[in-house]
Amino acid sequence: MAASSAVTADYVLKPPPYSLDALEPHMSRQTLEFHWGKHHRAYVDNLKKQVLGSELEGKTLDHIILNTYNNGDLLHAFNNAAQAWNHEFFWESMKPGGGGKPSGELLALLERDFTSYEKFYDEFNAAAATQFGAGWAWLAYADNKLKVMKTPNAVNPLVLGSFPLLTIDVWEHAYYLDFQQNRRPDYIKTFMNNLVSWEAVSSRLHAAKAASSSSA
Amino acid sequence: MAIRSVLSTRTLSGLKETSSKLLGFRGIQTFTLPDLPYDYSALEPAISGEIMQIHHQKHHQTYVTNYNNALEQLDQAVNKGDASTVVKLHSAIKFNGGGHVNHSIFWKNLAPVNQGGGEPPKGALGGAIDTHFGSLEGLVKKMSAEGAALQGSGWVWLGLDKELKKLVVDTTANQDPLVTKGASLVPLVGIDVWEHAYYLQYKNVRPDYLKNVWKVINWKYASEVYESECK
């Protein structure tokens, strides 16, 4: 399984590719300060502590994730490693002025694999809304097809044989401050309409296709 | 005709009882949100009134509503003999029914300080805690550590294993009731560690929530359950 894009081996807390207030009013600076500044930071810091002096020391993040998933019987470092990866991927899945319908090749593929952008929207929405407890919803690529997935806690498509292209974090900490009174559905809608970076999705798709054909 | 002569008055009244129970089966029992035995703000400063209100009126209410919906769908599927729908509904029943069961226990596990919240357990439960965990502090330390370490959403429990006659500390994921970890387990104290239980007040610092929640734990209720299960 080829390495995914973006995330490096150094277990670094990379800042999002925009300032912490750049996604307002759709995602507040306060949320970014906690979500990136505390939650994501803790995953990275705790991963470093766990890996130091172990046989995982010096291994890439992808390697750790794939080797500690253990078919769902998770080994110790999985949660921190996968959550570090997932959060970096999440920040880069969003941009100021994002959201809405993509165009070009990506739209054509969504229409091919979901019938229409609206059908994809509904499916992604449903996955994010019905992931019970903590987890993530994804647009992913496998076997030359786009698909929607949902995963619990820290699990991501990498360990399930698919290339992640887009994600939304549906742990409560992702939306609890901005969408008070438990309004996860409003958070998902806001993400889809105002935050998705289709540029990021496109470049990830190109990387995924390249990796697929090189291993074919 | 022959049957009528065999039936006594007692049998007839027994049958009447049975038929009304059968009629009861046609409509399923649905559930309602239980009232809290204290005001939303009564657990402050350990748990904010804002959290208590949202936790009760939004989260628990949603579990009740969705549980009732799932039960109605289940009832229809059972009556139609639609086995695959019955099976498909299991996760919705587990999530939402579990959410209702767990939160109903939780509200009783909490009490304002002026109603005994935080007062250490005495009597049989107090003794059992000292036996199994060394001291109440030992139990609190263990439960807080396990609650803090739980990844994702779930609960940390003090339970009684009725069969082995001992106290246990365990965790469950999502809204799984304690009984899913062992058929003989009876929940005595459950602490919700879903982020919604503490986020508005404690943000990401779950350990601080776990430090403070003990100040409003209702050990009187836990003792009652323990003593009735130990009979």
TrEMBL record, chain A:
Q: Which reaction does it catalyse?
A: 2 superoxide + 2 H(+) = H2O2 + O2
Listed name of the protein: Superoxide dismutase
Domain of life per record? Eukaryota
Q: Which UniProt keywords apply?
A: Chloroplast, Iron, Metal-binding, Oxidoreductase, Plastid
Keyword Plastid assigned to the entry: answer is: yes
Residue stretches making up the Manganese/iron superoxide dismutase N-terminal domain: 11-95
UniProt record similarity statement: Belongs to the iron/manganese superoxide dismutase family.
Looking at the record, the residues that make up the Manganese/iron superoxide dismutase C-terminal domain are 102-204
Q: Name one Pfam family in it.
A: Sod_Fe_N
Q: Which PANTHER family match?
A: SUPEROXIDE DISMUTASE, SUPEROXIDE DISMUTASE [FE] 1, CHLOROPLASTIC
Enzyme Commission code(s) on record: 1.15.1.1
Q: What is its main location?
A: plastid
GO process terms (BP): response to light stimulus
Which parts of the sequence bind Mn(2+)?
H35, H87, D169, H173
Q: Name one GO molecular function term.
A: metal ion binding
Q: Where in the cell is it found?
A: Plastid, Chloroplast
Name the coenzymes or cofactors required. Answer: Fe cation
From TrEMBL, chain B:
User: Which cofactor names does the annotation list?
Assistant: Mn(2+)
- Keyword entries, A-Z: Manganese, Metal-binding, Mitochondrion, Oxidoreductase
Q: What is its EC number?
A: 1.15.1.1
**Could you tell me what reaction this enzyme catalyses?**
2 superoxide + 2 H(+) = H2O2 + O2
Enumerate the residues binding Mn(2+): H55, H103, D192, H196
Naming one, the record's GO cellular component terms include:
mitochondrial matrix
> Which InterPro entries would you find in this protein's record?
Fe/Mn_Superoxide_Dismutase (IPR050265), Mn/Fe_SOD (IPR001189), Mn/Fe_SOD_BS (IPR019833), Mn/Fe_SOD_C (IPR019832), Mn/Fe_SOD_N (IPR019831), Mn/Fe_SOD_N_sf (IPR036324), SOD_C_sf (IPR036314)
All residue ranges annotated as the Manganese/iron superoxide dismutase N-terminal domain in the record = 30-111
* Subcellular localization(s) per the UniProt record: Mitochondrion matrix
| PROSITE patterns attached to this UniProt entry | SOD_MN
Q: Which residues form the Manganese/iron superoxide dismutase C-terminal domain?
A: 121-224
The UniProt GO MF terms for this protein read: manganese ion binding; superoxide dismutase activity
Any one Pfam family match given in the protein's UniProt record, by short name: Sod_Fe_N
Gene3D superfamilies given in the database record: Fe,Mn superoxide dismutase (SOD) domain, Iron/manganese superoxide dismutase, C-terminal domain
- Does ATP-binding show up as a keyword for this record? no
Q: Per its UniProt entry, what is the enzyme's top EC class, as one word?
A: oxidoreductase
> Quaternary arrangement and interactors, per the entry?
Homotetramer.
Task: Please describe what this protein does.
Answer: Destroys radicals which are normally produced within the cells and which are toxic to biological systems. Destroys superoxide anion radicals which are normally produced within the cells and which are toxic to biological systems.
Which family does this protein fall into? Answer: Belongs to the iron/manganese superoxide dismutase family.
This chain belongs to the protein called Superoxide dismutase
Q: Which organism is it from?
A: Brassica carinata (Ethiopian mustard)
